[in-house]
Every structure is written in structure tokens, then in C-alpha cells.
């Protein structure tokens, strides 16, 4: 049995966003999008229902980010997220989608020991959760991990600039400022590409540097707080929908205010219950 996509089917999905295609997006589609200069959106998701909304909206790539730590599981940072948590929630996201390419994050501690540990973790996410690719932080420092995972047939997205799993060492600051840091970021991006990564996330990087990295790579860059020249943009869904509480970083554009909408709905329900106006006869069974 062959799984090759026929030219006719390929042509049915000429664009990543807004096209008519229904088949699952592949990493090859992302490479082709870079060649045609097409920009694309990526959102995080941590559960099947949210993922299905984004899939139906045509978001071509969904990241089960370890931002689930602070945006879904109630941790302060991404650091405590475990492979069990990542596997469980990634499987839910995959079940909620039929078109989006689902990328699962390798959580802190699941790949830093070396290439063999990284491959074991990536394999678990692919086999048990069904993700189509994995993401890991670091360029040169994660070179062997990226190489072995890619050679084993699992697509890898690399994550550079601000790498939240290193928050205890680097804090949350713009990265790549100054000549030496900028050169290191370029070296990291090239290292990730040479190791076989299919895309590179650039987080909190000066826009000019992100543009230079984007021009110098043949794989797509996915920006978050990295300016408008990246090939793609990603946002954490709870941030861009206004569900996350507290002050947002300035790179976040808020497209909805779910926190207020949900709070208002909860209060309206509570008032109906307390005041006796819910349930009404049409909500009851006899
Ligand atoms: O975990 C995450 O959501 C991420 C994005 C911010 C890129 O890594």
C-alpha cells in the first residue's frame, strides 16, 4: 500500500491557510510554502476541543507547547511539565484534529541527557500520542539530539532565542542583542537546519536579526516576539484569546477577551441559580 500524495490531491491544497485541501498538512508543505513566500499561522492547544476549533478555522500547524505548564496545568513555568502530561495532552490534541500538523514539545529533562534519551522521548510522543513532529529547545547545544531524531524519521522543529526551559539561567529577556549573541543565534539556526530541523521557532529576538536568520535559512522561521519578517507566526492560544490572567508581553495581540466572557457567563449562571430563574420548564424532564 502506498501513502504517496497524488499530484491532484497536492494541488487541492495550494495554500496552508485558506486553501481547499482537507488532507493532513506535512512538513513538506511547510518547505513548499517557504519556497513560494507564503506566510502561515501556528497556535498552541492543550486539549481536543480547542484543537478542533483551530483545526476547523484552518490553522495549519498546532503546537502542543510546554506552555501548557503555565497556561493549562497551573505551574509557574514550563519547567515542571512531564512526559506523561505531554503525552496525554498531545494525544487529545491529535484526536481533535484532522488537517493540522501537530507538533509536540519535548519537555525539560526529556532530551538534555543526550541523543538516545531525546529519541526515546520523541518516539514515545509519536507512538503514544500520534504527534507528527516534535519541538526541542537549543541549536548547537541540541545538535546530536536533533540529528538522531531526524535520522530516525521524526521531524524536528527547533526553538531558539528565548528558550523558556532555561528560565532559571536566562530569565525572560530579549535574546540575540549585541554582535556576539547575534552571531551565536545565527550559528544555532544554521546548526538546527544542518541537523535536519524542518523549522525554527525564534522567540523574543530583535526583528532585524530574525529577518536575517529568515533570509539565511531555507527552512521556515516561526516568530514569537521576533518581528514581521519571519515565515510564520505563533502565539500561545490562551494569551491571544485573552484567557490568561495578568499582564501580557507586548508581542501578544489579543483577539478576544475570553476571561471576561467566561467570567460574565459564570456569574450570570450563578445569579440565575441563586435567584431561581434556572432551570426553566424547558430545561426539565417529566
Ligand atoms: O510552549 C510553547 O507554547 C512554545 C511557543 C511559545 C513557541 O514553545
From TrEMBL:
First-level EC class: transferase
UniProt keyword list: Cytoplasm, Magnesium, Metal-binding, Methyltransferase, Pantothenate biosynthesis, Transferase
NCBIfam families: panB, PRK00311.1
Binding residues for Mg(2+): 66, 105, 137
EC number(s) given by UniProt: 2.1.2.11
Essential cofactor(s): Mg(2+)
UniProt subunit comment: Homodecamer; pentamer of dimers.
Residues that hold 3-methyl-2-oxobutanoate according to the record: 66-67, 105, 135
An annotated GO BP: methylation
Highest classification ranks of the organism: Bacteria, Bacillati, Actinomycetota, Actinomycetes, Kitasatosporales
Active site positions: 203
Pathway this chain belongs to: Cofactor biosynthesis; (R)-pantothenate biosynthesis; (R)-pantoate from 3-methyl-2-oxobutanoate: step 1/2
GO molecular function term, any single one: 3-methyl-2-oxobutanoate hydroxymethyltransferase activity
Database matches in InterPro entries: Pantoate_hydroxy_MeTrfase, Pyrv/PenolPyrv_kinase-like_dom, Pyrv_kinase-like_dom_sf
Catalytic activity: (6R)-5,10-methylene-5,6,7,8-tetrahydrofolate + 3-methyl-2-oxobutanoate + H2O = 2-dehydropantoate + (6S)-5,6,7,8-tetrahydrofolate
Phosphoprotein as UniProt keyword: no
Biological source species: Streptomyces katrae
Family listed: Belongs to the PanB family.
Name of protein: 3-methyl-2-oxobutanoate hydroxymethyltransferase
GO CC aspect terms: cytoplasm
Subcellular location: Cytoplasm
Co-factor note (free text): Binds 1 Mg(2+) ion per subunit.
Role noted for this protein: Catalyzes the reversible reaction in which hydroxymethyl group from 5,10-methylenetetrahydrofolate is transferred onto alpha-ketoisovalerate to form ketopantoate.
Amino acid at each position: 500500500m502506498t501513502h504517496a500524495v497524488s499530484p491532484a490531491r497536492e494541488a487541492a491544497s495550494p495554500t496552508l491557510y485558506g486553501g481547499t485541501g482537507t488532507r493532513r498538512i506535512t512538513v513538506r508543505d511547510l518547505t513548499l510554502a517557504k519556497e513560494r513566500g507564503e506566510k502561515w499561522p501556528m497556535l498552541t492547544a492543550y486539549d481536543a476541543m480547542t484543537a478542533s476549533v483551530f483545526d476547523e478555522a484552518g490553522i495549519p500547524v498546532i503546537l502542543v507547547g510546554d506552555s501548557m505548564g503555565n497556561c493549562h496545568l497551573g505551574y509557574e513555568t514550563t519547567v515542571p511539565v512531564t512526559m506523561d502530561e505531554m503525552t496525554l495532552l498531545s494525544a487529545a490534541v491529535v484526536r481533535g484534529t484532522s488537517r493540522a500538523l501537530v507538533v509536540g514539545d519535548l519537555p525539560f529533562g526529556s532530551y538534555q541527557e543526550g541523543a538516545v534519551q531525546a529519541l526515546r522521548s520523541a518516539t514515545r510522543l509519536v507512538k503514544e500520542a500520534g504527534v507528527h513532529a516534535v519541538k526541542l529547545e537549543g541549536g548547537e547545544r541540541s545538535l546530536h539530539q536533533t540529528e538522531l531524531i531526524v535520522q530516525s524519521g521524526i521531524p524536528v522543529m527547533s526553538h531558539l532565542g528565548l528558550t523558556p526551559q532555561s528560565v532559571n539561567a536566562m530569565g525572560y529577556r530579549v535574546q540575540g542583542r549585541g554582535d556576539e549573541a547575534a552571531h551565536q543565534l545565527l550559528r544555532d539556526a544554521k546548526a538546527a537546519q544542518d541537523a535536519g530541523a524542518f523549522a525554527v521557532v525564534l522567540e523574543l529576538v530583535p526583528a532585524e536579526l530574525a529577518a536575517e536568520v529568515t533570509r539565511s535559512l531555507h527552512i521556515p522561521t516561526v516568530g514569537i516576539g521576533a518581528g514581521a519578517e519571519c515565515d510564520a507566526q505563533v502565539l500561545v492560544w490562551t494569551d491571544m484569546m485573552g484567557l490568561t490572567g495578568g499582564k501580557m508581553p507586548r508581542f501578544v495581540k489579543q483577539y478576544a477577551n475570553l476571561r471576561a466572557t467566561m467570567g460574565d457567563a459564570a456569574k450570570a449562571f450563578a445569579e440565575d441559580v441563586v435567584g431561581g430563574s434556572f432551570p426553566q420548564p424547558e430545561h426539565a424532564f417529566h
